[in-house]
Amino acid sequence: MALSILLKVLSDVPLTLVSVKGNISVKDPIQAIDRIYHHPEFDPNINVLFDFRNAKLELNQDELKNTAGQFLDHPAYRGERM
């Protein structure tokens, strides 16, 4: 199944919901971060909730750790969370 990422910004909460569907390989997370960051409604200062219930991670444990580190280190995600 192809990867699908849907983003919904709930400005009244404030919260960004990211729904991920399909197979996630090692190359996908950084591309996803960049796509989310460039979304016109994305605000790095509000919390983001990822929903992976309909996704299949095709990553081993080390790849998953590296991916988590990439999220934490990505400048697009550095904001002052509420």
Descriptive account of the structure:
- The protein has 82 residues and is of the alpha+beta class.
- The protein has one domain: Transcription Regulator spoIIAA.
- The chain is 28% helix and 33% strand.
- The protein contains two helices and three strands.
- Strands 1-2-3 form a three-stranded mixed β-sheet, with helices on one face.
- The chain starts with a strand and ends in a 9-residue tail after the last helix.
- 9% of the residues are buried.
Characteristic key phrases:
82 residues; alpha+beta; Transcription Regulator spoIIAA; three-stranded mixed beta sheet
CATH topology: Transcription Regulator spoIIAA
Overall tally of structural domains: 1
Under the CATH scheme, which architecture would be assigned?
Answer: 2-Layer Sandwich
Please give the alpha-carbon distance between the first and last residues: 35 Å
Global geometry:
globular
Instruction: Tell how many strands the DSSP assignment holds.
Output: 3
Query: Strand order within the widest sheet?
Result: 1-2-3
Which class best fits the helix and strand makeup?
Answer: alpha+beta
Largest sheet: 3 strands, mixed
Question: Topology, please?
Answer:
Elements (H helix, E strand, L loop, with lengths): L3 E7 L4 E10 L3 H10 L10 E10 L3 H13 L9
Parallel strand pairs: 2-3
Antiparallel strand pairs: 1-2
Summary, kept brief:
The protein has two helices and three strands; from the N terminus they run ββαβα. It is of the alpha+beta class and 82 residues long.
